[in-house]
Amino acid sequence: MKKKETGIFDYLLWRGDLSFESSPLCEVDYLVFSRMAYLPFEMHECRLRSLKDAIGMFAEGERFLMEQDRLFSAALASSRRFSGIEVVDFQKIFSKESEEQFCAVLFRLDPKTLLFDFRGTDSTIVGWKEDFNMGFKTPVPSQNDALEFVEEEAHRHPDDKLVFCGHSKGGNLAEFCALLCSKSIQDRILMVANHDGPGFEENSIKSSLYEPLEGRYQFFVPQSSVIGMLLKHWIAPEVIRSTNTGIMQHDIYSWQLSGPRMERVDERTVSSRLFDQTLHSWLVSLSEEERQTFVEELFAAFLSYGSDGVTFRQFRKDWKKSIPLLIDQIKGMDSQTKKMMGRLLGQFFLCAGDALPDVRMEEEQRL
For residue 25, what is the domain's CATH number? Predict the structure, then answer.
C-alpha cells in the first residue's frame, strides 16, 4: 500500500488550531516559518500587524515566488497557531552593484519570543551570483546585513528569547548570524534551523564556533540534496524524505512529515553524494583566486544580459540572445572547467528556472 503523502498543508490542517501555549514550537513549525520568509511582506506596510492582517493586505493578484505560496498564505491566515503572530519588522536589499539579494522578517511569537526569518535565494541572477561568491568570500553582503539586522533588533528587544531559521541561502544566513553574533545575543537563542542551506568556505568558519550552540542547532536536507550540501558543513545533516526528484527536492513543499516531525530517511541518495564529492574535490583543487575567476567568468554573460532584476527564467526564454553570450564566455575555459560548468549550469537552470518560478514576469506578460 502506497504511503500517504503528508506535507506542510496537512500540518496546518492538523495542528493549525493549537496555539503555541498549548503545543510548544516543534521542528515542523520552523519549516513553516522558513517558507513564510518568501511571502511579500516588504510590498506592504505590514509592520506591527498580525500575520492574518498582513496577509489580508495581499492583493488578489499578488505576486508570489511560487504559486503554492498563495494557498499557503490563506492557510496561515486561517490558522489559530500562526494567524496571531506579529510582523515586527522586515528588511530587503537588492543591489546588482554589490551583488546582493537579501530579505529578512522579524516575527513576535509571544510576549517573550522573537523569530528571525531569513529568505533564501530568489530566481534573479544577482541572487545566485551572491551564492556562488560564498565559495571564495566570507562574509558576502547578505551575511553582513543579516548579522547587522540581528544585532540591531536583538538590542532593541533585550529581554526576548530568539529563534533563527531559513531555507536555502536563508538557512546559511540563520546559521551565520547564530555563530557570529555577540555572546549576549547567542545566550538568548532557543533554536537555529537551517533547511537545505549551503555551508561556508572551508577556511572562514571554525568548527569550535558551533560548541556554544550544542543542542540548539538543526540542519535538514532532502535525500537528493544539492544546494544544502554545497561548501563546508561541520555538522552532519538529518535527511528528510521528499516526493520530488533530484534538485527539485529543494522545494520544501515536497518534504514529508510525520506528526510534529519531518520524516527521516537513512542517508542521501547516491547521486547526491556523488555530486557532492565531485564538486568538493574540484573546489579543493582550486585556489581562492581560481574560484573567484571561475565565478566571475560563469556569471559575466548572465550579468551583462538584461536589467538588474533579470532572472534565469528570462535568460532561458530569450535563448537566441542569451545563449551566444554564454557560449562566448565558455570558449576560453580549460576542459575540466567547461565540464564542471556544464554540470553546474544544468542544476542551476533547473532550480532557478523551474523550482523557483518567476511569477512576477509571468504576471507582467498577462497585463
Answer: 3.40.50
Cell triple for 188: 538568548
Length of the chain: 367
* Side chain identity at residue 346, one-letter code: G
Is residue 3, in this structure, part of any structural domain at all? no
Domain of residue 175, residue span: 8-269
Identify whether the C-beta of residue 351 lies closer than 8 Å to the C-beta of residue 198. Answer: no
Give the ranges where 93-159 is alpha helix by DSSP (H).
Answer: 125-133, 141-156
The enclosing H or E element of 195 equals strand 189-195
- Residues 227 and 354 placed together within one structural domain of the fold: no
Whether the CB-CB separation of 308 and 96 falls below 8 Å is answered with yes
| Among the listed residues 335, 252, 347, the one whose alpha carbon sits nearest the alpha carbon of residue 35 | 252
pLDDT, one tens digit per residue, over 106-152 is 999 999 999 999 999 887 778 878 888 888 889 999 999 999 999 99
Place of cell 502506497: 2
Shared domain for 37 and 136, answered yes or no, is yes
Cell triple for 100: 546582493
Out of 234, 269, 304, a domain closes at 269
- 322's CB contacts (< 8 A; 6+ apart) are 301, 305, 315, 316
List the grid coordinates of 97.
Answer: 552593484
The tens digit of pLDDT for each residue in 308-353 reads 555 556 566 665 665 666 666 666 666 666 666 666 666 555 554 4
DSSP 367: -
Q: Are 132 and 300 in contact (CB under 8 A)?
A: no
Total domains in the chain come to 2
Q: What is the pTM of this model?
A: 0.85
Give Cβ neighbours of residue 288 (< 8 Å, ≥ 6 apart): 136
CB 106 within 8 A of CB 116: yes
DSSP assignment of 75-89, as one string?
HHHT-HHHHT-EEEE
